[in-house]
Amino acid sequence: MDIQSVATLFGTFALLMILGVPIAFSIGLAALATFLLFMSFDQSVYIVAQQMASGLDSFTLLAIPFFILAGNIMNRGGIALRLIEFAKVLGGRLPGALAHCNVIANMMFGSISGSAVASAAAVGGVMSPLQRKEGYDPAYSTAVNVASCPTGLLIPPSATFIVYSLITNGTSVAALFVAGYVPGILMGVSLMLVAGIIAKRRGYPVAERPPLREMAEKAINAMLPLGLIFIVMGGIVGGIFTATEASAVAVVYTLFLALVWYREISLKDLPGIIMESAVTTSIVLLMIGCSIAMSKAMAFADIPYSISDALLGLSENPLVLLLIINLALLVVGTFMDMTPALLIFTPIFLPVVSDLGMDPVHFGVVMTFNLCIGICTPPVGSALFVGCSVGDVKIGQVIRPMLPFYAVLVALLLVVTYVPSLSLFLPKLLLGY
Description:
Elements: H1 3-18, H2 23-35, H3 41-56, H4 63-76, H5 79-91, H6 97-113, H7 116-133, H8 138-148, H9 151-154, H10 159-167, H11 173-179, H12 181-202, H13 212-237, H14 243-261, H15 270-300, H16 303-314, H17 318-333, H18 338-355, H19 360-374, H20 382-391, H21 395-418, H22 421-431
C-alpha cells in the first residue's frame, strides 16, 4: 500500500468535507487527486468519468428511481395516517401504547417508503402531538421515533440492499431482501421492549380497546398499502419478476392507490412528485457514481487488501475481527450518512470478512444494521435531525433518552453479527440460497 496514496485519498476527502463541499463532490475529487499521483490530468479525468459512467450503467440500479418514486407517491397519498391507525390497533393495549404505535408504524411505513427520514417525518409528525396530549415526555417520544424510523431500511423492499448488491458485483438482491426480515423485525421488537419498560416505570397510559368493528375497519384500510410488500416480495421470491421489475410494479400499484382508490392526489400533483423523485434520484446516483470512482482509486492504491492484511495481522479470531469492524462502522456512522458509508467501506471490509468465511448476504445485513444506528446518532445523523425537528425538541434533550435504545440496538447488532442464521435462515428456506 502506498502511504502517499492513502494520505491523498482520505486527506483530500476529509479536507473537502470540513470545508463543507457536498459529499458526492468530495468523494469524486478525492478519487481524482489520488489518480493524479500516478498519471496525467487528462488520464485521471478520463478514468474517473469512465468509472462513473460504467458503474451507473446497471439494470439493477433502475430499481432505485422507481422505489423512490413509489415512496414519494405513498408519502403524498395519505398512507401514513392509515398505517398509524392500524398500528394503534396492534399496540394500543401495551404500556405506553402510543410509543408502541410509533414503532409499529415506522416499521410498516419505512418498509413501504424505503426512507428512514421520510418515516421519521411522516409518522413523527402525526404521533408527536398525540403523545404530548397524553402527557408523554417530548424527548422520550422523539427518541422512540428516531430510534425506530430506520427499521424500514432492513425490512424490504430496501434501496440500501440494491446499492450493496451493486458494490459487491451482484450479490443476490432477492436474498438480501429476504435476509433483512428477521433482523428488521427483531430491531422493532427490541425497541418496543425498551419503550414498554420505560413507559411502565413512568406510568404512561394504555389505550382503550376500540370496538371490534372499528378495529376491522382500520385493519382493512391498512391492508392495501401493506399489500405492496406482499406483491413486491411475493413476485421476487416466486420468480415472477426481478427486483428492478418489482420496483416498476410498485410505482403502478402506488399510483392506483393514490389516484384511483384513495384519491389523495390528482393528476396535477404528479409532475411535482416526479420532479422531487428525479432530484432525489440524481443525488443518490451522483453519489454512487463518485463512490465507484473512489473504489477504483482505492483498488489502484491497493488499500482494501492492505487493510485486510493489517486487520488479519491483529488477530486470527473471527469474533475479535468482526467486533473491530463493527466498532469502526459505528464510528463511521456518527459522521457519515448511510449511502456514502456503504459505498466507501464495503470494498474495504468485504475482503476481510470474505477471508473469515462470512457470507456476503449476511455481511450486507450487518452493514445495513450498523449504519442504521449511525443515522440516529450525532453529529450527522439525518434521522436524528429530522426527528428532533418534527418533535420540536433540541438534539441535546434527546441524547439521554436515546441511550437505552442505543444500548439495545448495539447489543442486537452483535447478535445479528455472531448468529448468521438470523439473516440466512429465510433465504435458505425460501430461495434455496
